[in-house]
Specification:
Blueprint (H helix, E strand, L loop, with lengths): L7 H8 L6 E3 L5 E7 L2 E4 L17 E2 L16 E5 L5 E3 L1 H6 L3 E9 L22 E10 H8 L7 E6 L12 E5 H6 L4 E6 L2 E2 L9 E3 L12 E7 L6 H4 L3 E3 L15 E3 L6 E6 L5 E2 L5 E8 L5 E7 L7 E2 L1 E2 L9 E7 L5 E11 L22 E7 L1
Length: about 375
């Protein structure tokens, strides 16, 4: 049913995110600028009406400045060392020829995607919902690389470092870690050198990056140059201090409060996004309106997407597009015919194979992470 008065809160929640200009960086289409030092570029929502995000539209997120702007493949090597039998120095050609290539379609999503909508507001990049993308990645399995190096007994974690280096000693280098158990048990963790059939764009990690499907993009280290196997848990800043969530079942606390304990963020939760029509659009009475978007989760796979035009009182299942794998975006679409003029709120929610869905009220944590509230757009029908 329509509502008698405009739904102002959607306009208000978008106000903080509306000022970002469109900019064009090398190899990129027009993206929304958050910051330039380092680059943080957001994908406009209309690109999420399809399962695969074009390379030129894929969002960009860096943590330290300056960033790599060129790589000499004649000298670049991926070095594998630490607690291994045979330290390696792999060229890009080595990655392509010495290890079986693996193809995987997977979502890369910034941990802070949607942070700009948190109330109360939290520190960090004020992303809307476009800090994500989905691509077909091709690369070498990390477990194959580690087997070639020969992991020694007692190995606990591996760290991952890229070519981006801080300009000042006071700024911590961006180094992430994963357990050796995870890496050796998950054949889908890749060192990727191809993205949607082409080499990686420079701003998305050329010549090779880590792909950790199902996990937030903080682990997807770009411009990968070094892997070190350790006999202990890594305690660097970007693991011990940053990218942490409350140690609660929901990863949330009461808005404005401080969690008693925290843990590193890991697997993505289930989400659905409305790409079209855009928020605030005017549509014609009694004319079909095409609704489109994507849904995804951390690897269980999407089984159902529903939408509502009556503030969640009733829900209708929508049509799902092709299934490109459990880590991929799943397209959804529906036709909606508004029968009465007025103001409408359309809402969408997804459910995965584990039965997980989305909350109707947003959850909160001080890092601005894990946002997966039921999304909505407000329309005028006339």
């Amino acid at each position: 049913m329509p509502f008698l008065h405009p739904l102002q809160d959607s306009a208000e929640r978008d106000a903080i995110l509306a000022g970002g200009p469109l900019v064009r960086y090398p190899e990129k289409a027009n993206l929304i600028l958050l910051t330039s030092r380092p680059p943080q570029l957001e994908t406009p929502l209309h690109y999420f009406d399809r399962a695969i995000t074009p390379n030129e539209a894929f969002y960009v997120r860096y943590h330290i400045f300056p960033i790599p702007t060129r790589v000499d493949l004649a000298t670049w090597r991926l070095r594998v060392g630490g607690l291994v039998e045979r330290p390696l120095e792999l060229s890009l050609d080595d990655l392509k020829t010495k290890f079986p290539p693996t193809r995987l379609v997977a979502v890369n999503q910034c941990s802070g995607n949607g942070r700009g909508y948190f109330e109360p507001h939290v520190f960090g990049g004020q992303w809307s919902n476009g800090a994500m993308g989905n691509a077909e990645w091709v690369g070498a399995r990390l477990q194959d690389i580690l087997r070639a190096a020969g992991i020694k007994p007692g190995a606990a974690e591996a760290t991952f470092n890229g070519l981006d280096e801080p300009a000042a000693p006071s700024v911590p280098d961006f180094v992430k870690s994963l357990t050796v158990q995870h890496l050796m048990e998950d054949p889908d963790v890749l060192v990727a050198y191809q993205m949607n059939g082409a080499e990686l764009p420079m701003l998305n990690g050329f010549p090779a990056r880590l792909v950790v499907p199902g996990w937030y993009a903080t682990y997807w280290v770009k411009h990968l140059s070094e892997i070190m196997v350790l006999d202990h848990a890594f305690e660097g800043f970007w693991m011990a201090k940053a990218y942490r969530i409350p140690d609660t079942p929901c990863g949330c606390v009461e808005p404005g409060s401080t969690p008693a304990r925290s843990v590193s963020i890991q697997r993505m939760n289930v989400r659905a996004i409305i790409a079209t029509p855009k928020n605030g659009a005017r549509v014609a009475l009694a004319r079909p309106v095409t609704l489109k978007g994507v849904a995804f989760d951390g690897g269980y796979g999407i089984t159902q997407v529903e939408f509502s035009d009556d503030r969640g009182a009733t829900w209708r299942r929508v049509e799902l597009g092709p299934d490109f794998g459990r880590y991929s975006f799943r397209e959804w679409s529906a036709l909606w015919i508004p029968k009465t003029p007025g103001y409408y709120r359309l809402m969408v929610r997804a459910t995965n194979r584990a039965g997980e869905s989305q909350p109707i009220e947003p959850l909160w944590n001080p890092g601005g992470y894990l946002r997966n509230v039921i999304e909505r757009v407000d329309l005028t029908v006339a």
